Amino acid sequence: MSYDLTQLDTLQLAKKVVEKATKTQTLIALAESCTGGMIAATITNIAGSSIVFDRGFVTYSNKAKMDVLGVSEAMLKSHGAVSEDTARAMANGTFIAAPDANLVLSVTGIAGPGGSSVGKPVGLVHFSCQRYDALQCHASHIFSGTRDQIRHKAVKTALLMIFNEMD
After folding, report:
1. Does the domain formed by 7-165 have CATH 3.90.950.20?
2. What are the pLDDT digits (tens) for 101-133?
3. 61: alpha, beta or left, given left = phi > 0 and alpha = psi -120 to 50?
4. Do residues 159 and 14 touch, judged by C-beta distance below 8 A?
């Protein structure tokens, strides 16, 4: 039976992620910035998630990105915390900080209402996701809405990326 996962609510989608990760023996680790641990909370809200969820890092500040994930200060200065390069570096750092994980996802963005700059509007969110044996994928979106709406849209997008990366 085929259906559109985007039509599921976030909790239903998290359940699908946990089910698929269990089937595929996937162990997930996360690095979250703008979502502040919401992706991890959503996944761990599902019974049985302890089998497939290893750990999550909330690296909200640049210092945390550097200290926990090894993102370089030079990269943060040249590309900014909200960039494809930083999202990719966060994912790479997650593999190092969570060596047992075989799928990682990172997210960094501007949830607003402030924080925008030229070329980086409120709602801009970068994601990187990678299975240990595959190329890293990146996505960026400009979500509209309130801070809360932007963060919830980012959680749903992250869950969809994780689900799709397990194929």
Report:
1. yes
2. 999 999 999 999 999 998 999 999 999 999 999
3. beta
4. yes
Element (H, E) at 103: strand 103-109
pTM higher than 0.85: yes
Cα 111-112-117 angle, rounded to 5 deg? 105
Residue 114 CB neighbours (<10 A):
8
Q: Is 14 helix (H, G, I), strand (E, B) or coil?
A: helix
Query: What are the structural domain ranges in the chain?
Result: 7-165
Cα–Cα distance between 107 and 84 in angstroms, integer?
A: 10
* DSSP bridge partners of 142: 124
Report the length, in residues, of the chain: 167
pLDDT 10s digits, 75-95: 999 999 999 999 999 999 999
The strand ranges marked E within 22-65 are: 28-32, 53-58
